[in-house]
Design goal:
about 80 residues, 2 domains, 4-stranded antiparallel β-sheet, binds zinc ion, YfgJ-like, Zinc ribbon domain-containing protein, DUF1407/YfgJ-like_sf
């Protein structure tokens, strides 16, 4: 499992409820998960503790190693 890094300062992001917090620069970020093939945002499917992703555009199931994650600053 790879850790998420702050896009601003490259500090380690800590997962909070629905957001990610950078203790280094004290900013909060939202996570976006996109398809590795078409770049569309994917749907998160949770079942039995496992998480999979579904791309409505490609009509295919994605494992968590396939999707692309990015972090975006929350506006306050
Ligand atoms: Zn930071
Ligand atoms: Zn796709």
């Amino acid at each position: 499992m790879s850790h998420a890094h702050c896009p601003d300062c490259h500090g380690l992001l800590q997962a909070e409820d629905k957001t990610f917090h950078c203790a280094n620069c004290q900013q909060d970020f939202s996570q976006r998960i996109n398809c590795d093939v078409c770049g569309e945002e994917v749907e998160t499917l949770k079942a039995c503790g496992a998480v999979d992703y579904f791309c409505n555009h490609c009509q295919s199931l994605k494992s968590k190693s396939k999707v692309v994650r990015s972090y975006h600053k929350l506006s306050q």
